[in-house]
Write a structure and sequence with these properties.
Chain lengths: ~120, ~110
């Protein structure tokens, strides 16, 4: 079964840091670009960051640029999001997503991990 | 930056009816970069349509996508009880993704 499982969420004070992890299984993890997408309580979806299949390219939403760092370890089928200088507006469910093989879309989503900055 | 505007905000329909959801881009975009997702409460989004009109694996054929340029449409031909949910369109361009604000399809 193809799946993504996130972990690492929790409650953190403003200005604090948190590191999210996501483990993929059931597919060739190192063949696909991966992303983080977040959703604030009762709000819509916001793309956060993207990393290329080999980790050589990374991109960020303006709202997190300079504060968040995406990385991956293909030997561990793992994706990470290091979040620093956290703000109240970063409070959200954070989803790990896998790019579809062809086209620009996310065909697999994790169940999400919740981050609360308070 | 391209902005995606979805309409209507809420669609109130009965099971068996046809649903037509709109996603309008602030400027012309490539069809290859347009996708649609369904999200139910307490669940992550699920990919329905990619490249504007291709159904994702396991998606019933009552879901269809169309459009080009700035105007894209998700159509649900006959609403089933499980189709009442939030729907989002998404665009990829300039190394970033953008989502529309969503359309809620609710039971009338």
């Amino acid at each position: 079964e193809v799946q993504l499982v996130e972990s690492g969420g929790g409650v953190v004070q403003p200005g604090g840091s948190l590191r999210l992890s996501c483990v993929g299984s059931g597919f060739d993890f190192d063949d696909f670009n991966m992303n983080w997408v977040r959703q604030a309580p009762g709000k819509g979806l916001e793309w956060v960051s993207l990393i290329s299949w080999d980790g050589g390219g990374t991109h960020y939403a303006d709202s997190v640029k300079g504060r968040f760092t995406i990385s991956r370890d293909n030997s561990k089928n793992s994706l990470y999001l290091q979040m620093n200088s956290l703000r109240a507006e970063d409070t959200a469910f954070y989803y790990c997503t896998k790019d579809i093989a062809w086209g620009d879309a996310f065909d697999i989503w994790g169940q999400g991990t919740v981050v609360t900055v308070s | 930056e391209i902005v995606l505007t979805q309409s209507p905000g809420t669609l109130s329909l009965s099971p068996g009816e046809r649903a037509t959801l709109s996603c309008r881009a602030s400027q012309s975009i490539s069809s290859t970069s347009l996708a649609w997702y369904q999200q139910k409460p307490g669940q992550p989004p699920r990919l329905l349509i990619y490249v504007a009109s291709n159904r994702a694996t396991g998606i019933p054929d009552r879901f269809s996508g169309s459009g080009s340029g700035t105007d894209f449409t998700l159509t649900i031909s006959r609403l089933e009880p499980e189709d009442f949910a939030m729907y989002y369109c998404q665009h990829y361009g300039r190394s970033s993704y953008t989502f529309g604000q969503g359309t809620k399809v609710e039971i009338k």
